[in-house]
Amino acid sequence: MAAFKTLDDIDIANKRVLVRLDLNVPVQDGAVTDATRIERSVKTLEDLSEKGARVILLSHFGRPKGERKPDLSLRVVLPALNEALGATVGFADDCIGDQARQAVDALAPSGFLLLENTRFHTGEEKNDPAFVKALAELGDVYVNDAFSAAHRAHASSEGLAHVLPAAAGRAMEKELKALAQALEDPERPVVAIVGGAKVSTKLDLLGNLLEKVDYIVIGGGMANTFLAAKGVNVGASLCEHDLADKAREIMAAADAKNVGIILPNDAVVAREFKAMTDSETVDVNNVGADQMILDVGPSTLVTISGRIESANTVVWNGPLGAFEIPPFDTGTNTAALQVAMLTKIGELVSVAGGGDTVAALNNAGATKDFSYVSTAGGAFLEWLEGKELPGVKALSAD
Ligand code: AMP
Questions:
Q1: What is the pLDDT of residues 96-133, one digit of tens each?
Q2: Whole-angstrom distance, CA of residue 331 vs CA of residue 237
Q3: Which residue of 190, 227, 251, 288 shows the fewest CB atoms closer than 10 Å?
Q4: Can you tell me which atom of ligand 1 is nearest the CA of 355?
Q5: What is the pTM for the complete model shown?
Q6: Which residues line ligand 1 (CB under 6 A)?
Q7: What's the CA-to-centroid distance between 343 and ligand 1, angstroms?
């Protein structure tokens, strides 16, 4: 990763600082239901305020597609923002133009102002230079604290970094350092644990991991595709039979690169996809025609546990089974708690994220002891796929 500036490297006292956050948080009945992303950026906002900056917040919210849609106003996050900060954040009904300018002019040093949804303007997603300029007129410095939006080259997530002095916020800094520690400069052996429903959504990710890690543990529905490609009859399991050739290619590439692939050798199977339905543990070669593999079995977990035990770094994406319906969360929970425990005692660096991973690790009660659990979703997956994120690249441009 190229070097990037942080809040320690730029002069912000008395400056108007445009801070890109990801306030695209889940909302139900007019209230924020999960403020994790807001909470992770509090340190950035406090640091800026303590240094006397005038802190101006930018974010997208939903997909208004360039139209002013009242139900996608960022006003809805103000109470959660005020609570997380323990301060009152002002609000301007537009993110550019006279209204925004007047609100910024009225902002006292150390004060906070949230500007309306950047996606109310078509220029945001187009990264239109005129829109970038209109935003840039409101600030002296740009801070990006929204890793989760960094896979998009939009005006507020990328364009601004080219026209104002730019730095990473504290949450962005922490995430980039954790990711670098996991895949760019990791302590080996590195074990990747990859689960989830389908191989088709994870081809690029597996391709990149083959270049970077020592072992790949494959679980979840996607393991069925690999087992089927090896001639195992997976019965009624979720399986992408049309990807058998791809799965064989991945296994051959792993062999050539000396990357160990660990597939389940036993499984917990059931006839129905529902909680507490009748289930049994079988060898993967004995799955009945009407049975579905819904979790890895105990013998597989012993193998996985051995790999985790000998690892110095674990990268995790995707559950090992249908974790939403007990008891098929057992495999995910057991492995996650082991990773968490070894991380807690300093034996492991563990980084996880993407898709349902956060929910699966929360369900296991393992999140707090991982080194880093990313809430970035799509951006985390693109990073796992080895793609360069434009919002990050722009920060390290000079
Ligand atoms: P993903 O978003 O690709 O990480 O997939 C997560 C989803 O995969 C979760 O909803 C799990 O219930 C599902 N899943 C994991 N293992 C299996 C399995 N063996 N059969 C069916 N679905 C599974």
A1: 999 999 999 999 999 999 999 999 999 999 999 999 99
A2: 17
A3: 288
A4: 2
A5: 0.93
A6: 195-198, 201, 220-221, 238, 293-294, 318-319, 321-324, 355-356
A7: 25
CATH for 94: 3.40.50.1260
Nearest Cα residue to atom 2 of ligand 1 = 355
Beta bridge partners of 58: 20
Ligand 1, atom 6: closest residue by C-alpha: 196
Verify that 162 and 206 share a domain, yes or no: no
Measured in degrees and rounded to the nearest 5, phi and psi for residue 301 equal -65, -30
Distances (CA, A) of 9 to 3, 15, 363: 12, 14, 39
CA of 315 to the centre of ligand 1 (A): 18
Domain of 42, in residue numbers:
7-172
pLDDT in tens, 204-216: 999 999 999 999 9
**Could you list the active site residues?**
37, 198, 355, 378
The closest-lying atom of ligand 1 relative to the alpha carbon of residue 321 is 16
The CA distance from 339 to 316, in Å, is 10
Q: Return the H-helix or E-strand segment holding 397.
A: none
- Choosing from 150, 172, 194, the residue where a domain stops is 172
Q: Measured between alpha carbons, how far is 325 from 17 in angstroms, rounded to an integer? A: 46
Residue to mutate, 271, 356, 358, 380, ligand 1, most ligand atoms under 8 Å from C-beta: 356
